[in-house]
Amino acid sequence: MVDFKSIETFLWVVTLGSFRGAGQRLNTTQPAISQRIAQLEREMGVKLLNRDHRVVSPTPSGRQLMLYAEKLIGLRAEMMAEVGDRSAMRGVLRLGVAETIVHTWLSRLIKSVNTAYPNLSLEIEVDITPNLTARLLGQEIELALLLGPLPTSSVRNRVLCDYPIGFLASPSLGLPAHLLTVKDLAKFPIITFPRKTQPYETVRSLFNQPDLPPIRLHASASLATVIHMAVEGLGIAVIPTAIVENELANGQLQLLSTDLKIPPLTFSASWLESPDTLAIERVANLAAKIAQGSPAVAEPSIVDAPRRARH
């Protein structure tokens, strides 16, 4: 009799294009995956996979089975969501997080996950958005909280929040309270996000003008380092104001008034489309609720990418 384990194994082999990838996703060995597929083919009485290429692909019968496999796994997830005990959700969710979220509401998300799903563990990696995107598409993480949404057809996105960007400096720099121009700001080192990120390129373009002196632009992958440098008076930080609320409140930093406009940073929860994403979507929903309750954030919304066509 065909069981869910064999169907789920088949679905992941086709989705990931390899027995090895399916083994990693299902936390088992490649020989075990091969054995399950061989058993499924015996029970179905047809060949389901083409194995003569680097990427495993479904046969015509395999493509037909995929339609039913997706429905079955999707129905199982729906059943668990409606009927199942939330404590029954178990396993490990690999979560990638942009550092801005680490400095704002990540700890509240972790507490919420621990309370709602006590048997679900999180493996958390903090990185810049380009690296998180690559890791998500490479199946190395399952949910990413990053600058988005990602315009990729295989990715589903849930917009979380917007964070305004501010120009922040230590009072020790003696900057006036009146409106500052780009020429006023260019006299000081600018400290911001690391290279290869959207905010870095935006800041660089603002000061890349022929009538300005060469900009002293300090980039750091650590926002804690950026904040520390700004507090020490080593330059003007260009970062989300939400992550320095304490420093603004105690007078270590001041928000400068400028004539420069930088678009707010939009963050999203992004994950690869799959029939079996119950845990991922539930954590993404928790993230949206927490982000919505944070200061100066936008209403969350769903931005679903088009579903992939099955050929």
Number of β-strand runs: 13
General shape = elongated
Backbone CA Rg: 24 Å
Order of helices and strands: HHHEEHEHHEHEEEHEHEHEHEEHE
Distance between the termini: 27 Å
> Could you estimate the helical fraction of the residues in percent?
40-55%
Structural class: alpha/beta
What's the helix count? Answer: 12
pLDDT averaged residue by residue: 86
Order of strands in the sheet with most strands: 4-3-5-12-6-13
Q: Strand-residue fraction?
A: 15-25%
Q: Unreliable segments (pLDDT under 50, ≥5 consecutive)? A: 294-311
Report on the biggest sheet: 6 strands, mixed
> What oligomeric state do the depicted chains represent?
single chain
Fold blueprint:
Blueprint: H1 4-16, H2 19-25, H3 30-44, E1 49-50, E2 57-58, H4 60-83, E3 91-97, H5 99-102, H6 106-116, E4 120-126, H7 129-137, E5 143-147, E6 155-163, E7 165-169, H8 182-185, E8 190-192, H9 198-207, E9 217-219, H10 223-231, E10 236-240, H11 245-249, E11 254-255, E12 265-272, H12 278-292, E13 301-304
Helix pairs in contact: 1-2, 1-3, 1-4, 2-3, 6-12
